[in-house]
Design goal:
Blueprint (H helix, E strand, L loop, with lengths): L4 H33 L3 H27 L1 H12 L9 H5 L3 H28 L5 H30 L11 H4 L5 H10 L4 H24 L7 H35 L7 H7 L3 H24 L9 H30 L2
Helix pairs in contact: 1-2, 1-3, 1-6, 2-5, 2-6, 5-6, 5-12, 8-10, 9-10, 9-13, 10-11, 10-12, 12-13
Length: 342
């Protein structure tokens, strides 16, 4: 077993999260059952005051702490690079336990997105005593608890079984292969000479999403136009998913090689190693993109009546946050490209 300060911290987070998630999930299940059986308004009000509020406060603290497990995971992997034989970057470390690591890399952004969505929902509706909405929040919380538990157990297995006995290969043979998936898709969509068109598509897609966010920020008064607001939020979600896909292609194929000044190397893990602020570029982009999903989720889960007219104001704040995150990420990439082109 390999240990470093960040991996010990991650293990501690995983162990504590597992225990608290089991406890919180059982608590939420019990409170939800009691709430459903409460027939009178007085009993419901008492349950909301004495059981729901402490539960939601407890859940908020645990979920906020759990958010930090995502960046800590990659920080811990980076610390193992020097200890794993054959590893030149995080990619080599992931090959010690490749299947489990792939699963964790898939589930962690989903956990982060779900936690962020629940915290935003709770912030918007923390004063709402509507029983139906409280039950929805409890159901959502129990679902997140299950996913967090799986993620935490995965962290425990991964870091407890991490060792330096496994011989791994560096990222070059796999990620720079002419048969890699990202290159194949780019050539299929944009042709053999796809680099410049892909960079242009990356900018157009991000600028279009920024334009949609700016438009939605200006349209503050949509409380009485529910159908129009839903179409706008749906458009934002669709463009956000499309932009996420296009950026996932552009990052390894054109952005990483130029930012690292290594034209034929396409490893996003090496990008994190050679360009330190690339973690901020990716982080701001993900937060900005997640904002469109969080906004759409709020519209689906809540109504203006339940949120006492605050829904549009919260949506406006989320889109400002998305505009800031995407704009900052795009600006940082542009500065790097201009600097590399000198």
């Amino acid at each position: 077993m390999l240990l470093n300060p960040l991996s010990i911290t991650t293990l501690s987070f995983a162990l504590i999260s597992s225990v608290l998630t089991l406890y919180g999930g059982f608590w939420a299940f019990k409170v939800g059952g009691n709430l459903k059986r409460s027939m009178t308004a007085a009993v419901r009000h008492n349950a909301l005051g004495k059981r729901i509020n402490p539960l939601f406060w407890f859940a908020s603290v645990v979920l906020v702490v759990r958010l930090f497990s995502y960046p800590l995971f990659y920080g811990a992997l980076q610390g193992f690079v020097k200890d794993v034989d054959g590893a030149m970057c995080i990619y080599g470390v992931t090959q010690v336990l490749p299947n489990l690591c792939t699963f964790l890399e898939f589930i962690k952004p989903l956990v982060f997105f779900s936690i962020g969505g629940w915290l935003i929902l709770h912030s918007l509706t923390r004063r709402c005593k509507n029983q139906s909405l409280v039950l929805r929040k409890l159901t959502f919380l129990m679902g997140i608890s299950a996913v967090i538990l799986v993620d935490s157990i995965g962290d425990l297995f991964f870091f407890l079984n991490m060792n330096c006995d496994t011989q791994v290969t560096c990222c070059t043979p796999t990620i720079d292969s002419p048969y890699r998936i990202s290159m194949t898709m780019c050539r299929y969509l944009l042709g053999q000479r796809y680099e410049q068109p892909l960079l242009l598509v990356y900018y157009l897609s991000n600028l279009a999403l920024l334009g949609v966010a700016g438009y939605l920020i200006k349209k503050k008064k949509l409380e009485g136009k529910v159908a129009r607001r839903k179409r706008s939020l749906g458009l934002g979600l669709f463009l956000g998913v499309t932009n996420l896909f296009l950026t996932a292609l552009a990052l390894p194929e054109v952005i990483a090689p130029r930012l690292m000044n290594l034209p034929y190397h396409h490893c996003p893990y090496c990008l994190l190693q050679y360009v330190p602020d690339s973690s901020l570029i990716i982080g701001f982009f993900m937060l900005g993109t997640f904002g469109f999903g969080w906004a759409f989720g709020l519209e689906v889960v809540t109504t203006d009546k339940e949120t006492a007219g605050n829904l549009s104001r919260y949506l406006n704040k989320i889109y400002r946050f998305s505009f800031f995150g995407l704009g900052l990420s795009l600006g940082m990439v542009t500065l790097h490209l201009l600097w590399c082109g000198r």
